[in-house]
């Protein structure tokens, strides 16, 4: 993985390269940022650059013996830890090294993958993954060995949020790693990290992708025209993974389904709501999430419209029609509740909750919120 393979993030790439050139590579770092920013890919590209035998000022060469192995994630001094589902008490099977083939395939197919994508590739079914004590002991023993090749030994821990208390056995190695060892944690949610570990790392913030950077990328990779690419990048709020998901699930279908949802819960017709829930339940998990993401976006636009925000220019066609009509009912009194409602929906769908129950709840609450807004609109009128 070269820096050039990663969307945008130019400033961060420059900073990372600078640390290598100036010999200021901190031995334990925390790459922290939201989903779809490319932080795992950046960690790999950084490690590759650090070990490249003929790096340029902008990137690793991509062709030296070290880069060739890095390109395939098979360098003997490159290790990964990530959440896995533990089975039984056989330590050999419960370490990440036993799952590297699947992990390599999943990452190389989509360097922007998230936890759920990985769990699916890993065949976790509905079980929760974690980074267990077996893995922690394996890390200590792997990092204790001398490097196989010249250069840095690197351990990239993806999603240390799933490290339980067992992670505390890593304190010493994070604080005082063996020479020429680099430990990179790649995380999304700081509040879920063991503070004992994260406090011993240097923070590298990975920001959301610039809309222009993502739009340009989508234009090239998905053969989109400029304006469509931009709408998708905006809708995904700079999340490269979400952008691709939105493209895979056809914007049009979400558009209609979400607008139907708002109309049915506004009029409160039970039969129509029930048939809508069946349709949404049939979408599959990714489709359901993408529908809810779309809903969040439109609700936000409704709210902005109400307050005459300049950002309106991004809407057109039936979206603009819908938002113009519906913005009356998205008020200061309910916008936060709507926001929470849809975000909770996404949260529960991601965790395999029963979709019918999630959408029932969503419909009931939306009906209640809209009824409240109708009432206050009538009173004002
Ligand atoms: Zn190279």
What are the main properties of this structure?
alpha/beta, Rossmann fold, 5-stranded parallel beta sheet, Zinc Finger, Delta Prime, domain 3, 7% strand, 17 helices, binds zinc ion, 381 residues
Give a description of the structure.
With 381 residues, the protein is α/β, with parallel strands linked by helices. It folds into 2 domains: 3-205, 3-Layer(aba) Sandwich (Rossmann fold); 249-380, Zinc Finger, Delta Prime, domain 3. 54% of the residues lie in helices and 7% in strands. It is built from 17 helices and 5 strands. It has helices at 10-21, 39-51, 65-71, 100-109, 115-121, 133-144, 171-175, 195-198, 211-222, 226-235, 240-248, 251-267, 270-281, 285-306, 317-326, 335-350, 355-380; strands spanning 28-32, 78-81, 153-158, 181-187, 202-205. The protein has a 5-stranded parallel sheet, with helices on both faces. Helix 9 (211-222) crosses helix 10. It is globular. The mean pLDDT is 89. The protein binds zinc ion (ZN). Residues 52-54, 60-61, 64, 66-67 line the site of zinc ion.
Task: Give the SSE layout.
Elements: H1 10-21, E1 28-32, H2 39-51, H3 65-71, E2 78-81, H4 100-109, H5 115-121, H6 133-144, E3 153-158, H7 171-175, E4 181-187, H8 195-198, E5 202-205, H9 211-222, H10 226-235, H11 240-248, H12 251-267, H13 270-281, H14 285-306, H15 317-326, H16 335-350, H17 355-380
Parallel strand pairs: 1-4, 1-5, 2-3, 3-4
Helix pairs in contact: 1-2, 2-3, 9-10, 12-13, 12-14, 12-17, 13-17, 14-15, 14-16, 16-17
């Amino acid at each position: 993985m070269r820096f050039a393979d990663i969307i945008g993030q130019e400033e961060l790439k420059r900073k990372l390269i600078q640390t290598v050139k100036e010999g200021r590579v901190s031995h334990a770092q925390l790459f922290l940022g939201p989903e779809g920013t490319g932080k795992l890919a950046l960690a790999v590209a950084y490690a590759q650059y650090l070990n490249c035998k003929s790096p340029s000022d902008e990137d690793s060469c991509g062709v030296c013996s070290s880069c060739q192995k890095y390109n395939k994630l098979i360098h003997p001094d490159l290790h990964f830890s990530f959440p896995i589902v533990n089975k039984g008490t056989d330590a050999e099977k419960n370490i990440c090294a036993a799952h590297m083939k699947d992990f390599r395939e999943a990452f190389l197919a989509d360097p922007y993958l998230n936890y759920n994508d990985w769990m699916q590739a890993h065949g976790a079914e509905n079980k929760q993954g974690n980074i267990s004590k077996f893995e922690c002991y394996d890390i200590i023993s792997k990092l204790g060995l001398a490097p196989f090749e010249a250069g840095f030994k690197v351990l990239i821990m993806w999603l240390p949020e799933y490290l339980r208390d067992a992670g505390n056995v890593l304190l010493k190695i994070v604080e005082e790693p063996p020479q020429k060892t680099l430990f990179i944690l790649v995380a999304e949610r700081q509040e879920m990290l063991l503070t004992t570990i994260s406090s011993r790392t240097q923070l590298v913030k990975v920001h959301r992708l610039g809309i222009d950077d993502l739009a340009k990328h989508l234009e090239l990779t998905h053969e989109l025209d400029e304006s469509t690419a931009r709408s998708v990048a905006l809708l995904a709020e700079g999340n490269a993974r979400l952008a691709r998901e939105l493209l895979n699930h056809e914007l049009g279908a979400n558009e209609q389904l979400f607008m139907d949802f708002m109309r049915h819960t506004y009029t409160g017709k039970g039969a129509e709501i029930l048939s809508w829930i069946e349709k949404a339940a049939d979408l599959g998990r990714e489709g359901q999430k993408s529908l809810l993401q779309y809903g969040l976006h439109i609700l936000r636009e409704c709210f902005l419209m109400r307050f005459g925000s300049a950002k309106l220019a991004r809407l057109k066609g039936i979206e603009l029609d819908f938002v113009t009509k519906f913005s009356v009912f998205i008020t200061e009194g309910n916008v936060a509740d709507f926001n929470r409602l849809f975000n909770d929906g996404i949260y529960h769908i991601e965790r395999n909750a029963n979709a019918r129950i999630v959408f029932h709840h969503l419909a009931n609450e939306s009906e209640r919120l809209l009824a409240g807004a109708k009432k206050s609109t009538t009173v004002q009128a």
